Prior knowledge:
Elements: H1 3-26, E1 38-41, E2 48-56, E3 69-70, E4 80-81, E5 86-93, E6 99-105, H2 112-121, H3 123-129, E7 131-138, E8 144-145, E9 154-156, E10 159-160, H4 166-185, E11 188-198, E12 203-205, E13 215-223, E14 229-235, E15 248-249, H5 253-264, E16 267-273, E17 279-281, H6 288-305, E18 310-311, E19 315-327, H7 330-337, E20 345-347, E21 355-366, E22 369-373, E23 377-378, H8 380-384, H9 406-410, E24 416-418, E25 427-428, E26 446-447, E27 453-454, H10 465-479
Parallel strand pairs: 4-15, 6-7, 14-16, 22-24, 23-25
Antiparallel strand pairs: 1-19, 2-5, 2-11, 3-8, 5-6, 9-10, 11-13, 11-18, 12-17, 13-14, 19-21, 20-21, 21-22, 26-27
Helix pairs in contact: 1-7, 5-6
Amino acid sequence: MGFEEIAAKAVKKISIRSGKKMLKKNGPAPEIAKAETIRMKNKTDEFYRVGFAKRITMPDDVTAKPYWLAGFKTGNLVTGVMDPMTVSAMWIDCKDEGGIIMVAADCIGITGYEINELRESLSDFCAETGCKSINVCCSHTHAGIDTCGYWGKAIVGPVPGNGKDPEFMKLFFDAIRDVCRESYKNRKEGRLYVGSVSVPGAQDVRRPPLVFHDTLTRIRFVPNDGTEETWFLNFAAHPNTLGGANTKVSADYPYYLRERINKEKKTNVLFGVGAIAAVDAGMHCEDRLERTIKQGELLGEAALSIDNDVCQPPEITIIQQPYYAPVDNGVLSLMGLIKTVNSMTAPCDKGDLGLALKTEMTYIKLGNQQILLIPGEAFPEIVYGGYSTAEESATGLPPEINPTPLVDIAGDKNLLVFGVTNDMTGYMVPPNDFVLHETQPYLNNGKDIKGRSHYHETNSLGHLTVETIADVFADIMSRV
């Protein structure tokens, strides 16, 4: 038995012991109540109110002390800045009944633990303004300073040390609080539109069954006073185009997307990713920076070209639903136990470890546009359908063992999905394509029946993730 096999067994044993200890000390995890369905509507006219604010979130000492780039490998030391990390907020309301905030952050992700701390720190603001929900959509750039903890220097084998810098995290969250408050102060009346466009060539799907959803969606607010519009864009492609050799901070292609739009039309632009598991940018060329710029410019031009905007009635529905996600990944569990990452864990009667992560999913309806905020990276087929057949799948199992695709649960092929939002829970892999290493699960890539290597499972919570997501969403839709 090799070291890695021994390590895998030890990690699993530690996690199981932790679950039993937690169960003995605290008893079963408390049942999570069904979240309230909140509905807001402008009863006087056809206008929304929207406000925007933006902050740069870069430390002054970025090269004077160690900061770690998040996304590719542990211990990747920052050596400079290509373009700055930013956070932006969009306040949306229907006048007198309160509103919601959507934050777009140039970062790899943020844990639900920290999101809850952020919301608690803004509780007075929410009480004063009637804010019903604060949501943070992370762009998942692979060239930002670590905001999760996964990418510090390795301490034992593949287990990293905490890569977060406390002073930077304070700066980062202070900036989010600032833009939340300022976006409320900046709100103006106007109309809200939703439009979309297909962008062929902007995606490279790297794992079967090769489901392409190349739709760029634009939520567009046009203020009545003729000042700058505010756009929230959504597209499914990993912002990882600068590659693993890069050591400079960057928002990756979303920076160049925003620059391209503002070159033609001064606009407040926010960006969030869709179902991005195994989906990279499609603008291939040898030079990584050139590829990044081209991807951003292609999407920026596509956003400017949208001509099918539909004006949305001023109505907002929101259900912010916490839930327990079973954890089978002993490595991720261990990282939580040793505080490499912050997490909210509880005993669980499902899965291999007896542990679950408390996370959340949020449903929003703006006018007629349905939106789902999910806490990780979904494979496109989970959202849009197109699961592997038994002959094509990694396991030889049929697609019928997979849950209903999310668009079918919603009854809406135009369901808009934002990934890596309000938590960072890893990949969501379809059950009939889920394969682990036989003796070193979650430590090394497994190989499927066709000899293909499987990386994504090593950074997933486990094989029950997709089933849980579908069940929670189906329950939400039953209440909508």
